[in-house]
Design goal:
With 143 residues, the chain is an alpha+beta fold. It has three helices and eight strands, in the order αββαβαβββββ.
Length: 143
């Protein structure tokens, strides 16, 4: 974790939330610095605004990207990307779609996760999958 990411994480924790992820993207010619947060019981607009207001002075001193950018603070959503062991740990008992290194695709429920692998349960039973074998993973919701 970078020094800036650590500072952002600490500030988010002061609001009773957890840092989920950070990304910089370009959309319609604009650079957007996104800070995704999670919180037991959910994330609301007031929480996002409060964290955004507290982060702005820090990011003025330590810009996260070069040039002009827009700051967005939000929830990662009900269907979210899983990249880190902590993402998988926080998604236990949720449904996941994964694409593996061998090209196969899996839909399953996450049973457990640790620092090296995730255990899933699907029609083929329980499977342990090392993170190194996962190319993409995302939670999904049956609408």
């Amino acid at each position: 974790m970078s020094s800036l990411e650590s500072k952002i994480s600490d500030m988010v924790k002061m609001h009773g939330a957890e840092l989920y992820d950070i990304e910089s993207v370009t959309e319609n010619g604009n650079t957007i610095f996104r800070v995704y947060i999670t919180k037991k019981g959910g994330v609301d607009l007031d929480l996002c605004a409060d964290i955004s207001n507290d982060l702005s002075p820090l990011l003025d001193i330590e810009p996260p990207v070069s040039g002009q950018y827009f700051l967005e603070v939000s929830s990662p959503g009900i269907e979210r990307r899983l990249d880190k062991p902590s993402h998988f740990k926080n998604a236990i008992d949720e449904r996941v779609k994964m694409k593996l290194s061998d090209g196969s695709k899996i839909k399953a429920k996450i049973v457990s996760a640790d620092e090296d692998s995730v255990t899933i349960n699907n029609k083929d039973g329980e499977q342990v999958i090392p993170y190194s074998d996962i190319r993409k993973a995302k939670t999904y919701f049956d609408w």
